[in-house]
Amino acid sequence: MVAIGNSVSETYLMDCSVPQGSVAGPFMFTVYVSPLEDLIEARGVHTMMYTDDTQLYLVLNPAEARGDQLQRLEDCIRSVRAWTTANKLMLNDTKTQIGRIRKYIDRPTAERLVHAFVTSHLDANNSLLYGLPNSAIAKLQRVQNSAARVVLGVSGRDVNINALRKNELHWLPVKDRIVYKILLLTYKSLNGLSSYIRDLAAYTPGRSLRSASQALLVVPKSVSTKNYGDRAFSVAAPKLWNDLPHNIKTASSQYLRQF
Question: Where is the Reverse transcriptase domain (predicted)?
Fold first, then answer.
């Protein structure tokens, strides 16, 4: 029912949701997400909610270790993410703003937050990005550079962020992280650690080859167009793997854990 002045519309029974932008939309959405406030406060985190915007914040207690406070916030975010997923809502990580609170937290805390909200998304399924044009990778690299500036507490273009990212944070560039992920998956598949992708990297030739003693993989011919075919895991993985030094290809998993 809608009332404007002395005019009142007819009453309709709603057994489902209402369209976005309708008069009843904000009220119905507020009712729908009302359990979220109780979930957040039950984990010792404060919240401010306005329609579809939710802010989480902590009142810092000097007597409590910052690591414990951050852990409490991270646990709360995981619970919120699980609740939104279960209730068919999406948590928009792109609206999470770390830079505004950087001056209030130390570097390890900032790095943990950046890994939770930024670099984890850059690394998720990033092996699928192999072979993309440099212009596309450059956009992701700018995101990583911005994240590095937040962690290091620097700003401006006069800072050599590439050198700082390498020497201070020891982060691989986005393009190298993509290659690293493919090689890691290849190593795991060849050593029985990820059997579900072994068939993608394994290619058995019809005859015995000298490459078998050199821990080399046979690169199958692309069956698709050149650009797209070479991006396939079954083609890209052997190519990248064969370029590795022999001692790395034959290293044990215990040796690699040191890195």
Answer: 1-109
